[in-house]
Amino acid sequence: MATFELATPASLMKDISQPDLALIDTRPAGDYWSGHIAGARHLDPSLFATPGTDAASLARLHAVLAWSLSALGITQDARVVVAGMRNEVNAARVAWALAYAGVRHIALLDGGVEAWEGERVTAAPAVTATAFTLDPQPAYLATAEEVLAAAGDGGARILDARTREEYAGERSNAGRTGRVPGARFWDTSRELDADGRYAAPGQLASAVKDLVAADERAIIYCGGGGRAARTFIALQLAGHRGAAVYPASWNEWGTSERYPVDTAGA
């Protein structure tokens, strides 16, 4: 299992020269090449988006994870710091994917690259590729079949990290509107404070305690996995170790008649 924490610009400045630290920039390629923190390796978060959670889709995700982390020279024991555009969801998607792949130490630069006041460079660092050994952590990923089972027997709490309008069935990014039966609405704005930083752990724990118990498994979904990943990170920071992301989310659930949809008013 992975440990999750927040890095500050000061802590990153202190540790950036350590040989076991790997800094990953998840911003769009154009932003990365216009100027990034020295030593940062670029990674496109869309690589880890998956339209399904069937065996073939997960096999593709595993192959992409192993290839990309090998190419970036990442190892399971590296201390990885993920820096995105502020605290947007794509940085969280990468952090979640790293944890699922088996990376053990993950931090997010709170506030993203915009919070960095040091020098920026345009040259990419020289990286020695490694043979990353994928060690999938099933506790961090929920498939559609697992969500279906949880919706039926209540074996896990299901959290909907979409907007209130999506949750209520007023709009959708997929073919059907509605929500997973039994899902509880989570307001993702509560994950950040007024300055756009992650909310304090105690504040996060207080906000979520009425939705899911600290020792209860929580399956989080959204439209395509990004917002769910940031909620996953927020729960981890709050000390909740039972969270899992349904990465295909409504892109899969909302397009298949196999999966039931609750369209009652919310």
UniProtKB/TrEMBL annotation:
InterPro entries in alphabetical order: Rhodanese-like_dom, Rhodanese-like_dom_sf, Thiosulfate_sulfurtransferase
Keyword annotations: Repeat
CDD domains: TST_Repeat_2
Transmembrane segments: none
Domain Rhodanese residues, every copy: 17-122, 152-262
PROSITE patterns to which the protein is assigned, alphabetical: RHODANESE_3
PANTHER family per the UniProt record, alphabetical: THIOSULFATE SULFURTRANSFERASE
This protein's name: Rhodanese domain-containing protein
Organism the protein comes from: Bordetella flabilis
